[in-house]
Write a structure and sequence with these properties.
The complex is a heterodimer of chains A (76) and B (167).
Chain A: E1 8-10, H1 12-18, H2 24-31, H3 35-42, H4 50-59, H5 64-67, E2 68-70
Antiparallel strand pairs in A: 1-2
Helix pairs in contact in A: 2-3
Chain B: H1 19-48, H2 57-88, H3 93-97, H4 101-122, H5 124-130, H6 135-163
Helix pairs in contact in B: 1-2, 1-6, 4-6, 5-6
The chains are: A mainly alpha (76), B mainly alpha (167).
Chain lengths: 76, 167
């Protein structure tokens, strides 16, 4: 499998499961994006905009960095 | 007869390509084929006819026209096919095929990465004009560079959809 292009990791999948099995499509509907985009974010293939990241955190009623984490490594 | 409300996809159901990704695939194949056919037709004529007598304007206009029309029609047909498939499974095509912020980011990502094709390779037109080559070569070069830009744009977008990208 090819490495993920982004170092932004997230816990969206786990949080969805904790929130009464919120589906990808339901989360996408609340964000106004497609399910493909939610899947791409969960898999680390797409980093959402800061605004969308805050929207996601708000849906889960958590601070931003409880949902998204920035990976360790070379900062260049 | 009442049709049931479309339902949201379950997590275990396969996703479908959105309209923008479908258009990228259509653009990739159409420009590769029309450019290949144009080059084959004109270069075949160059082999048997003096360059200044080769009829290249009509094939070029046909290639451009067919490319544009086929990309539009092909994208529509692909979208309609996708929408019908989703509707038959009770899902909502408007929700699953629409463009969103990721599509816009991918389009911008592709534009930034394919800018050089038009600008750097396009400068070759100046070189050909300075060398005073036949207009066939200049016209063909400009078309080939434009097609290369469209093909590269489509390929970068498809790669971003499949493997992800950093904007």
């Amino acid at each position: 499998m090819s490495p993920k292009p982004t170092r932004v990791a997230n816990r969206i999948r786990a949080l969805r499961a904790e929130r009464d099995d919120l589906t990808q499509a339901e989360l996408a509907e609340r964000l106004g994006v497609t399910r493909q985009t939610v899947i791409a974010i969960e898999q680390g293939r797409y980093s959402p905009s800061l605004e969308m990241a805050f929207q996601i955190a708000r849906i889960f009623e958590l601070p931003l960095d409880d949902v998204f984490q920035y990976g360790e490594g070379d900062d260049n | 007869m009442n049709t049931p409300e479309p339902r949201l996809a379950r997590d275990d159901e396969p996703t479908v390509m959105g309209m923008d990704e479908r258009s990228a695939w259509v653009q990739l194949f159409v420009f590769a084929i029309t450019t290949g056919v144009y080059l084959f037709v004109v270069l075949s004529r160059v082999r048997v006819t003096p360059v200044e007598e080769v009829e290249w304007v009509a094939p070029l206009l046909w290639a451009i026209g067919i490319s544009i029309v086929t990309v539009i029609v092909g994208s529509i047909i692909s979208g309609v096919g996708g929408a019908m498939g989703l509707a038959m499974r009770g899902r909502d095509p408007d929700v699953e095929l629409k463009s969103d912020s990721r599509d816009k980011d991918i389009a911008r990502h592709a534009r930034l990465r394919t800018y050089w094709v038009g600008s750097v390779l396009g400068a070759g037109t100046l070189v050909l004009a300075m060398l005073d080559v036949d207009t066939l070569w200049i016209g063909t070069y400009v078309f080939a560079v434009s097609s290369a830009g469209a093909i590269t744009d489509a390929a970068v977008r498809i790669r971003a959809y499949r493997r992800g990208f950093v904007s």
